[in-house]
Design goal:
Helix content is 43%, strand content 14%. The protein contains 13 helices and 11 strands. The longest helix has 27 residues. The protein has 353 residues and is α/β, with parallel strands linked by helices. The strands form 4 sheets. The protein has a 5-stranded parallel beta sheet with strand order 8-7-9-10-11, sandwiched between helices. A two-stranded parallel sheet has the order 1-5. The structure holds flavin mononucleotide. The site of flavin mononucleotide has 15 residues, from α8.
Length: 353
């Protein structure tokens, strides 16, 4: 392919990439359920690896170099080659569960590929590729390795498998203590509509928190400790509040005041729901408060749902297609943002250089 393109005489750079880390993804089920993955390959043979997002990064950098001309091929690999046994160790650390690599025969592997929908032409092609890797043909030429990309398999596996394996936990807080509160109903509908991979819990301690008083902090009441524990438990907060006299209800502000000096709220992803299109002052005030407390508001997940004056309960919200779809979309947008934040945190100690 490179020869054909070079024959045109045009400038071209070829990315010669190592084994895509994503290649392991089709085995995510046995990895999570049996703690194993399989290849017709020796476990201790180091293979050049690359996370595909790094290929994009390299390609983008080169495309931006407008003064370059010529023809060349460059290897795009992570700095360290990894054997499949090493991949298993990094996967285990990433998902906190023992994962082992198990070599299998080419026949058993082909059979499994065909069962998973690979075409009869594709499976042998992949076996040929394994043979080339084992023969060292697949290695990028010496001196061509970039050696600057840094995605450990641990970091990669976190991104890829976290989504499949981990339940995202959300604490829902209603700013209304009213028994038939529309804001509480909205949050309860979100609980009812959440998929199995998302656990939303309604915080019910707002009314029993004492008035905030910094003097009480050193020996704080149990109800405050419980609030902190629940905030720490949560990967994100879903807050829905009424507006009282153009402001945030005192009970909600009181709870937030207790959290100002603690560590559990820091950097917490937050989605703000609003059950009344009229209540704009409370929303902007709450935005300001949680932002100054370093909460990370996910705007795309912060929606206004027109419940005011409709006298609608949880079942009514769930049954209303428009409302329930908007709510579901907001929850899933929030969950995606939480994954994104967690992924960034997992990679944060290994920035691209
Ligand atoms: C004391 C009080 C003050 C209120 N002030 C406002 C206000 O300033 N702006 C507004 O849009 N609605 C105001 N409302 C209306 C509530 O925000 C509205 O009824 C809301 O839907 C109540 O939420 P809930 O059903 O979750 O209790 C006020 C209600 C009360 C009881």
């Amino acid at each position: 392919m490179e020869d054909v393109l070079n024959a045109t005489g045009r400038s071209a750079r070829y990315l010669r990439c190592g084994n895509f880390m994503e290649n392991f993804l089709w085995q995510v089920e046995p990895i999570l359920q049996q703690g194993r993955f399989f290849y017709p390959f020796p476990g201790d043979f180091p293979i050049p690896m690359v996370a595909t997002h790094n290929i994009g990064v390299v390609a983008a950098q080169w495309l931006l170099q407008q003064d370059w001309s010529g023809q060349e091929g460059i290897g795009v690999d992570e700095p360290e080659d990894l054997s499949l046994n090493q991949v298993a160790v990094q996967m285990s650390e990433a998902i906190n569960q023992t994962v082992r690599f198990q070599p299998v025969s080419p026949e058993a592997y082909t059979e499994s590929m065909l069962q998973h929908g690979a075409s009869p032409a594709y499976a042998p092609g992949l076996l040929d590729m394994f043979a080339e890797v084992a023969a060292g043909i697949y290695h990028a030429e010496a001196g061509c390795k970039l050696g600057k990309l840094v995605t450990s398999y641990k970091g990669y596996a976190f991104t890829a498998m976290h989504k499949t394996s981990q339940i995202i936990r959300i604490l829902a807080i209603s700013g209304s203590l009213r028994r038939v509160s529309s804001n509480t109903a909205l949050l309860q509908a979100a609980i009812a509509l959440a998929p199995a991979t998302v656990e939303i819990k309604l915080y019910d301690g707002l009314g029993s928190l004492p008035h905030f008083n910094p003097d009480l902090e050193p020996t704080e009441p149990l109800s405050v400790t419980d609030l902190r524990t629940q905030i720490r438990w949560a990967d994100g907060l879903l807050i829905s509040t009424p507006e009282y006299a153009h402001g945030v209800p005192g009970v909600l502000k009181n709870a937030l005041d207790w959290l100002v000096s603690g560590s559990e709220f820091i950097g917490k992803p937050i989605a703000l729901l609003n059950a009344s299109p009229r209540a704009t002052y409370a929303q902007s005030s709450l935005t300001e408060i949680v932002t100054v407390m370093t909460g990370r508001i996910v705007l795309e997940a912060s929606i206004t749902v027109p419940l005011l004056g409709r006298n609608i309960d949880i079942d009514g919200i769930v049954a209303d297609l428009e409302l329930s779809q908007a709510l579901q979309r907001a929850v899933m947008t929030f969950v995606d943002a939480i994954y994104q934040f967690q992924t960034e945190a997992a990679f944060s100690d290994e920035p691209l250089r």
